[in-house]
Each structure stands twice: as C-alpha cells, then as structure tokens.
Amino acid sequence: MVFLSVQKLCDKRTSTTSIKTRATVVGRFIIITQDNPDPHRRRGTILLNDLTTLDSIYCRVDQFHHELVNIPVSITRWNFIKPDNNSNIIWLEVYLEDIYPLGNPSISLIQQLIKAEQIANDLFVSIRDVSMLYIQDLLTLTKRNVTITDSSLQLQPQQQPLHVIGCISARLIRNLQPGEEAEFYIELTGLGGNTTATMVFEGDDLLIWYHTFKTNEWYVFTYLETAAIVIEGIPARGVLRFVPGQSRCYRMDKDQLKQFKTGSFVDYNMEEIEEKEKDGEPQIVLPPPGILKSAESTSMTSYEGTITRVIDRAFGIYELNHQLITCLFHYIDYALIYPYRPGTRIRISCAHMLAVDSGSSIMQIWAAPTTEHGDYKAHVVLVGCLKTHVEIVEFPKHTQCPSFKSTPKTIALLSLHGPIYKDCIRTKADFDTLIQKLEFQASLIHKFKKSIVPATRLHLFCNQYTGKIKSRLPLFGDDIFQDIFQHENACTAVKTRKSTVTLVKMPAVCDIAKMLFDDEERRVQISRHAGERGSSRDDLRVNLKMATYDQMEINIMIMGIVGAMPDGRLYLMDDTGKLPLVVLPEENRPDHPIHMGDLYTIRRFLLIREDLGYQEEKGSRVLLDCSYIVCSIHDLKRVASIGSGNQKSIAIKKAVDTKTVTGFKRKREEQQIEENEEDDCEISKNNKVTPRYILCILDIQPPILTHREENTFELTSHVRAIRYPVIANNNSSTKKKNENNKDERPEEIEIIFSSRTKSLQFLPQLYPGCWMGLATEDEDEFKVVETAKYLPKNMNLPIIPPKLILDPKRHHLFTTLPQQHMLDFIPITIAGVSLAPSIKQIFATTTLKGKQKIFQVKDIIQIMASSTTTLLVNNKNGNNDDDRPSMIEIGNRFFQDTVSVQGVIVGKGFREQQTRAKATIDSHARQIFEEFGVGTGQPGRNQLFFRVRQTNGLDTVDIYMDVWNRTYPLGLVPGALVTFHRLVRKKSDFGSVTCQMLPCSWAEVSELRNPQAEEILTEQIPCKNLVDIGIPIRKLGKQGHNNSDPTVFKIQCAVKSIIQVSLGWKCGTCGTNVKNNKCYRLCKQANRVFMANALAVVNDGTSQARAHFDGDQLVFKLLNVQENLMDGIKTAVLEHGRVTYQSYDDQNMMEVEEMMEEEGDTGDTLQDQELTKSGVTLPKLCRRVLTTGKVYTMFARERAEKLKKDATIMQQLKIQTISTEGGQPVAVVEQPHIVVVDLDLVDPAERAWDLAMRLDKLCTNEPKE
What we know:
It contains 20 helices and 65 strands. By secondary structure, the chain is an alpha+beta fold. Strand 63 and strand 64 (1224-1229) form a beta hairpin. One of its GO terms (biological process) is positive regulation of DNA replication.
C-alpha cells in the first residue's frame, strides 16, 4: 500500500484521484474553532492536516462525525482538485465510508461509530425511570422558572434534564461573528411533522457537532435543558439547549423508536413555583420549546439531483438534471472558491422553490430549462437561504473543474456580472433584488450587444442603474430571530410570499409589439366606425389595433435610445430593432426637449398598429402594417446621456427683439452645467467647432419624396430661416462694417435637409420660432441664384434666398437644449448695420407657431360667415372680422386663405385618386414605404381621408391628405385630438365644405382620447324645427350645388315610419357579403366588418323629414335594442347572411333602390330570419318602435345633394309639381333629408315636465290689461 502525505498531495501540479495514483492519503481531521484572518480557513471549516508538517488541505466530505476530529486516519478513495496549474485553490473530495483508522483498514470509522451509537441507545433504554419526550410532547412544557439576566439566552439553574427524540429537518444559522462565541441552531420535527422545536448549540467547542447532523435523520438527545430567547426583556421563544460536557446525542433508526419509553414530563419544582406565586414574587413563564407549524409557511422543499452545468459560480447558479436551476448565493456554507463540479450529485434540503416567468433576459442568457404546464411556461429555481442545507450524495469520477484565478482583484470578475456580485455582497441583497439586478443588466447587454452604445459607457450605466435597486428591510441576515423562529412566515433571503417571482422585465424593442398585442387584457380592437359619425360606405377605413402600457400596472420597463433616422422621424431603438415614436408635446409648448441619441425610459404609452395590407390583382393578400408608439413628453424620462454627451449647445438667455437685433456676440467663458448622477458625459476636448451663424427658424416644410436617377429616391425638407452673424469678441461694434458683406447682416436663407446626406435626423429638433446655431467650414457654401440675369429689365421678382444643402460631415447644428457644455450668446445691434426691409416684412407677416389662429370645426364649415367665432388657442376678448376665416372664393370653388383647425378624428380611411397619372413612385410603392415610410405601400392608394369632429360638439369636416410622396402620418387615429395647419378649404359637389392638405400643411397630435367616451356639450347645439329646413330658407346655389347648412342641429321628434333597415357583414378586403362566416371570394386573412343603416320618416309636429342612420350604434338605438342583445344579433347575421327590412310604396321604391345600390347590396337578403333565441326578427323590432310612440332627441345635419349643371329652378328647389287649389298655385315639395349623427331616447315624464314649465313661463309673461 502506498501512503501519500498531505504535503506531497499539495505539491501536485494537476488534479488527480486515488484511482490514478493508487495511493492512500493519510492525515488528521481538524475543524477550525477559532477566529482566523484567512478567509479560506474560517471557523467551521474541515481541514486535513499533515501528520508531520503544518500543511493542510480543505476537505469536502459527503458527511462527517465529530468523533473523527484529531484522529489519524487513512483515506482510500479521494479526488484531488486543482482548477488551475498555478492556483493556490485546492481541495480534497472524500467519502466518509472510505475513512479508516490508520493501520487498521479492515473496518471504516463510520461503521465503528454507528455500532457504538447503537450500543449506547440500547444501554440508555435499559435505564429505569427515564422517559423520552417526542417533539409534540414539548407543547405541554409550559411553566418553568427563569432568572432574567442581560444575556439574550436565559437559562434555568437546577433544571430537570430532558431527553428528546426528534428528526432533524434543518441545520440553521451558524453565528460566527468575530470576537464572539460560535453558536448554531438545528430544527427538530416530531412524528407527523406538524410540530417543531429549535435546539441551540453555544460555544466554540460545540462547533465540531455542526457537520455531524444530517437532515431527515432521527436522533436521541439526552440531558438537555430549556431556555428562552429574550427580546427587549420579554421571553419571545422557547428553545432546547445542548449543554457542553453534559448533553449527549446518538443517531438512531426510525425502527428503534418503539424501544424507547415515552411519557409526560414532570417538573419537580412546580410546587416551589406555585408557592412563590402565592407570596407575590414575580415569576417569568418560559414559552414552550415546541410549537405547531404555521399553516401559511413559505414554499420549502427538498430536491436531489446531479449538477449538469455550472452556470455562474459566483452567485451559486447550477443546473440540476437539465430540469431546473438552483441559486446558492444565500446558502451559508457555499464557498465561492470551492464550487461544486459538474457531475456532483447533491441533495438540497429546505430550499425555496420558485418560478420565474418565461421571457426573462437573464434566464435566456443562462439557458435555463423551461417547465411547461399547459400554456404556462416558467423556469423553476431552487433558492437557498439560511435554513438550507446541501448534502453531497456522490462526487464525479472525473477531475474537471472550470478554471479561475484567485487574486483579490479578480474575485469579483468570476461572474459575468462582477460589479453586481460585489454590490449584492455589500448591500446584503435578497434573492428578489439579486435576480432583478441581473435581469436589468442582462437586458441592457442584450439590447445593446452590437455596440450602438459604447461598451465602457454601457457598463458604467449598468452599475449606476442597478445600484438604485434596493432590498426591502430587513436585509439578508440582519434579523436572526426571524430567520430562525419565524421562517415559516418570512425569510430575509426570499421576500416574496408567492411561488412566482415577478420580475420587472426590459424587453427588446423588437419584442415590444408582440408582447403587448399578445396580452388580451391590454389589446384594444378599434371599431371600424369609431365615433359613429357620418357615412361608412364611400371610404375604405383603416383597421387599427391598440395596446396600452403603464409601468405602474405591468412589470415591464421600456427603455431604448430615442433618436431620429434619415427619414426625419423619431424612433425608439436598440440593437434589436426600432419603432417609430410620436411624442405629444406639453401644452402651450411647441418644442420637444429631447436629447437625441440618449437613453430614455417610457412610463406610459399607447402602441398602435395600423393594418395597411391589401389584396393584389392576382388574389393574394399582401401583409403590411405600420406599428408605432405614442407617448406624452411627460412620460419620457432621460436616464443616461449617450449620444449627446460630447455635444455642444447654445444659450440665448436674453429676449431677442427681432425689430432691432442684427447679430449675436459670444461670451468668452463657457457655461458649464453640473453633471447629474444619471449622466456620465465625456466631453471631447478637441471639439473646437463654434457657430458661425445664429438661425431663427421661420417655416418647416414636411419631408417630400423625389425621384432621382436609376430608381433612387430622396426625402427632402426645406426650412426657411433668418441668418444672423456671430461677431467675434475681438471685433469692436464701433467699427464700420461693409454693407456689401452679406455675412455681417441678417438675411433670409433656405436650408435643405436630405435623407441622402442623413441631415433629416435633425428635423425633429426644429420648430417654427426656435433658435439654432450653424457652423460651416467655408463662408461661401450658400448657393445664390441671380434671377436678374435671366429676366427682362422691366420684370421684378422676389429675390430667391440663398440655399444650403445641410451635410453633417461639413456642417454642425447647435440646439438650445441644456447640455453639459454650452456656449452663451448675447443678441446685439451691430453699428452701421440695419435690417433689410424684406426681413422686417417677414417678421411682420410670418405667423410663428403659438401665434397662429386655430379655429373650431364649426367655424370653417359654414358657407356664410357667422357673427361670432371662437378660437381654440387665441382666445381674445371681443373678436373682430379679422378673426373669421375668409369666405372669398377663388377658382375651382376654393376659398382664398388657408386655415388651421383643431378637432377629434372620428374616422380614417383610404381614397384612390384615379385622376393622377401613375408615376415612378407608384411602381415602387412597397419599397418606398419600407425604406422611407412614404405612402401607404399599395400602388394607387395614395390619399388619406380624415373625418374630424369638433372638440365639444357634433359638427364634422372631411380632410383629405395626399401621401403618395410624403411620410405616412403617425398618430392620426380615431380619438386623436389633432391640429391641422394650413388647410385649403373647398366646396364639394354636394355643397358642403371639405379641406385639403397642401405640401406645406402638417398635422400635430396633442392628445389621444376615446371618441365614444367624450362629453359633448349638447346644450350648446342649436335647436331647429323640421319646417325650417324647407323652402323658406333655401337659396339657389352657384355652379350646380345648393347651399345647405352643414352644421349639426338638435330636434325632438317621433318615428312615423321605417322605410328600410339593413344589417350585414362585409369582407374588409374585397367588399363582398359574408355568409356562414365565409367570404364569397374566400379571403383567408380578411377582416369582417359589420354594416348597418336605416331610412325612416320622422315628425316633430311641424313637418316631416327623411332621416338617414348609418352605423350599428345608431341603428340599434333607433330600434331600441339592448346592449346584451347586440352581440347575439351580430352573430346571427354573420351566420345567416344579410338581413333587410323594407316597407315602401312606389314613391319610395326608387330611393331605396338607390340606397341599396350605393351599399353594393347584390346578394340575397332575409327578412323574417330569427335574430335571437327568443324569436326576435327585424320586422318585429321595427313594428315595436312604431307602436310604442317613442320620442327621440336627434342630432342631425341637412343632407346636401349634388345637382346637375343644367338643373332647373324647380329641381334646385326640389319642387315636384305645382297644382292649383282655389285659384292659388300650390307647390308639392319633397321631404327634406337629414343625416343623424347621434340620438337619445327622451323620458316622457321629463318631456312633459319641460312642456309644463314652458307653458307656465308663457303665462307669467303675458301683459296685464
């Protein structure tokens, strides 16, 4: 037999085993019981010492016994592990059953010890008058005298000793504070497992017992005493005390329990205690050492498995059996420098079994196994705490171990998340905080793994941001009493009381849309008739999906870089993708204080997806959509300076008087803004570029797409500005200036931003009225067109401003956003330089943003000017004629001036312009939309239609926008409060007013509302009688159309007859009817659209009119259908096909046929089809309305009709015939037509009371005789 000393074993350069060396290791086991400055040799560590030298090696054993201490032994089976060739970290893996007495290899020491314990148990059973107590018997051990001292552990002198039988369920905390005596606790359970008791071991000499105890094993404890844990002078919990030199412990089998006599404990001091209580002496009653387990205990479990992968040794993350992972960071016996090796089989006792939802970034990086239960997917994690114990069942047969260095500087770098490891150690982080810190850093690394953010800055930001995640009190290990005695209700290592750990996730931008739209609770399908205002037959409406996000309601944090792309739009982006971003500005503030290229979080937003798919001529469906984020500027929070860290900006603190200022002067000193904690900006000292000019932005044209050679396209935006010179500090203002020098006087210029030069990315930072700084390399970069050379002498044209094509490679723009490095400028008046008359005229006539007149919808749709006009933004005291929109018509029925209007969008759709010739842009519509976001993606579908309603009323106006060469507008959806600027008004063929957007027009979204939940001020809507809509107020129109009043009015009337009602579903792709939930053309991915309309005759007592109802809500209100029946009726119509009710005579037949032709109704219709299970049909609903005599309040407008150019006077006045009665001519006039936009059912009692009040008012106002 070859013997190997510890010294020779430590000298080996590589790992080895007993099989390879065929040697037996000899030595002496010791357990360190004193304070040791070496962190590798802390108290409680098991070492194997050399028999002759002072060499020792750390031992990892599957189990241990205190009787092995200081006994020379020989070890026949072992593994020597040395991870690195030059590493000082080495350890020995040993099985207890392979430890033999030195010189006697016949029987192992553990077998001898087990035999000795069996003999001791048999001898103890034979002792008379010894009763054993089970743990459940300790519940009755109530009254025991105690003396109060300053110690937290209170003992009773001269106690009757206790003999207890119990099963060890947990080895609890080892309290190894330097300078204090060591102590540890074990937890015992009785038969049935519903009662527990805690035993305390106090003293350095008893530390050798800690490794002896094995969980789930039965032991006999003899000669114990009771004690109490005192908190603030009050005994809080009873415990058992293992007394040094007195108490004994023996392991036993569960089968030996029957040999022991059990009985109730008798306290011989009870009579003495009762006598002292009678004499009035205060007595302290000890709490019983045994308690019942709490019914609301935390999820604790035991698990045995093989380590299949070492994921992160610093945090103790291991994979077990390819099924779950474990985190041993809070396990008190886990040693970072002595990790578990792959292939080691372990048994984990008293661990928290938690589930982490799938989709976590850190779990994806760790490649954690996924457990599926139906549709639910999660990652199971076993989390260790102060109560956990890990027992080694089997060591691996190989010697492989991941290598690492042990220098102090690299200990924190053992993990990929080294800074977080150090922070968790320092702050005593619990598992919830630890995993959240790792989740955030993993998400950031995943989002910016392609270096969109510099690596050094990203790591620094990660450390700062994760450092703000704080643990909840009490911190891990600070409340020993809670961890030992109240662990069933709370744990300082695992704060959650649920079985699932909810992480605040930070998804990648590419996953945001899928994640939110898959959440049914947050997905909102917008109705095709959002707002239910106006016709739905003529346009193809846009199908929308919306998903709401609120950081306070959902455990998701949206973070990304906010910047502009070459198409001139804002984006939220990271390395995985990008989403267009619409930022709603602050009220009365036109600017967007956004630092481009910086890192932002969004607290709340609305995710919108517009379906732009279409059907090709071949029949295939083209899938196309536009997804983007809409949020308020208040919900954007800047968390780190990334792109703007080395940028400069300008500061103009003094107000600029545009009538006198002719230039700017820069201060010598540079203003420094104090750096925030979240900003870590590295200023480039070599950046010496300063502005040559200061610009005042006048006008911004939206980007327009142009075609270049070889089928290439370019987006350009023209910006008008006033250029002011910057005077150097060494130039005196008293010097004479050369008037011919254009650089020394203000001048109008035009800057061209282009996608080709990538200068459009600066466009979101501009707005009319803002100030910018411009630096150019050369002085003569502005191109001047001299028109005088090409014009006759007698012809004068306005001077074309100098143009500059902005190129970021040669030019620099400076904003006024606060930066760490700012240049201060002062407006001055240069001596000898005056403003040109053209510049004065520009400031006198140009209306900058914030000074524009913004009208209501009602003000711009009236053909005749109203007496009063209410401005939404410019509220003046006393409006004059200048505040009214111009009513002067110019050619082709257009009005003279452009207007700005604010309203709520209630409808959006596409219109096809058949008159416009197909251009090159149309042939590349899909490519242009995907590259630049221009158009709608479908050739020929090049015009958008918006129906805009007044903010507090029901008046609407139709606005048309050509998008074939401009970017698709974002945020213009039903419910959006939008201000349209520079609209041109036009009279339609029906006499109503519509608006058209010009290339210089733009729309600004202010707010997103719910159009169906808004409060409409119906009291301000004027009342009318139907008789007033007749001939007396009709006027002959010009150019083939009549001038009907387009405003909404209010009437109270009853339904006299219902002429026609139609309910049906149509295919949103091809427009055909749907029956049996199938499209006739078999469109697979088409949207089903419910269509409903009705025609009725109403009477208000003065006259009759024909009322048109369009939309399911209006038709169901007319038929008085309850909400609980609406879905059933729609389902029945979807199954059986179109359902139509018709009741007309010869006079109405032509009108109904025209209505059905407009609707495209060519399929079969059913009239008596049952719509509900109770047998309700459409004729029954119509007859019920006519027989009950319901009174409605209807909000409607006159229906304008197109007349032929050669229409006669009778046709214009809608006179059918003229007859003679009594010698007087009588004209038979057609009934007027009205379009109902909303209606409410009137309460008869309320109506009668209103009439009575009116009658009383008339009677009281009669003149007295």
